[in-house]
Design goal:
With about 425 residues, this protein is an alpha+beta fold. The chain contains ten helices and 22 strands.
Length: about 425
Amino acid sequence: MATRTVPFTDGMKIGLGYNRLTGDRLPSPAVQGTSISSVQGAGGQQVTISCTTIQDVETLHKSLGISVDTGGAYLGFSGSAKVDYVNECDFSSFSTYVLIRVSVQNAFESIDSPTFSPDAIDLLVTDNPERFRQRFGDTFIAGVKKGGEYFAIYQISGSNEQEKESIAVKVQAAFNGILASAELNTAINTAKAASRSHLDVRALVFRQGTIGTADLNLEDIIQTAKQFPVGVSGDKAFPYAVLLQEYDALKNPNDQFVPVDIQQRQEVLEDLAKKRFEFLALRDNLKYILKFSGDFENADGTPVDRAQVLQDLDSVVAAINQMQDEASECTREAGKCNFTQFEVAKFRVPQLVKGTAESILNGLWIEGGGHVGPVISVSGKIITVDMSAFNRPFGKGVLLDQETITVAFPDDATGPFTGKLQANKILWSNQTSWTKV
């Protein structure tokens, strides 16, 4: 008997049918049992706490326990509080997420000796699979997990990957007790003040179906996370997930009964859901570009045409709505699962203005041994490297082109050294590298 776990939503009860395509629980009891048993964990609560850095929205969904099998969640027409929660996030490629997750299971309640209900038996005996699926879906709720879940998402946005990665690392360090909360708050505020890439950090908290914004005091978030198991212990526990089981292992009064096959529809809906993720990211990318259009240019180097970006944004939103409408039709009727072809490649998305060598070089660097210290200054073609952090004399050099420099250090006779610029790194001809802070 195949089983799967999906998030609890209001109205779910053991024995009710469930439609996996739409995520709907059906109102009529599909099965009945001799009793409902509660199995307590032998070791008390089962608690899982994790802190993970996530780069894309699909992985974020899966980390929250939202999958295609949750029924309609990927396509936005499921009434899941978790879906509402994750929809608060920005899905653009300019965001990185740090997810703090606490899962607590106190007990598991399940139905004993399940059998079909009288109403279900009537439809089985009369061999009416379509009506059976309308009333009882394709699975039934066989058990309920009680306890609770707590999530805190740190959404880190900006156009500089190094800045976002640095903040994500600091959040992880604070979660693991390596960095004090006050230090994290200072680091975030300092990085935001110094950023030229519109660095922004916000926190979204989910606790038993409630969504709220939080300040950047990680200490409060971590304290809440650690205290959460106590807050959902005993009679304070919430139902937070249900176990679904298929009907095939139940005793059937009509062995010739063939249920409606939904596998093909599940597969095409999953493909459409993944395409929808691409369009959600494109939608939020275009919103970001409109907000900071001065930082972007077209592929040919011309300025961003805001009117064209707005037109593309309207087209993307329309496509997302059309996907949802077509998916909804598919869940109701198998013959309506031939979807429109949606392609993000047809949109010409502006790109970040490429930084000049001068703008990249100017500033503080970390040398190959991990020590912060070299400070590079560029004036015209002349390069000066301040090495006083290492009690060394200044280096002097020349900018040869937008990708190449040469620098000589008075105290190193093996030079001068040639440096190649690659993103935020200088790859030196002596096989060492420096990284921009």
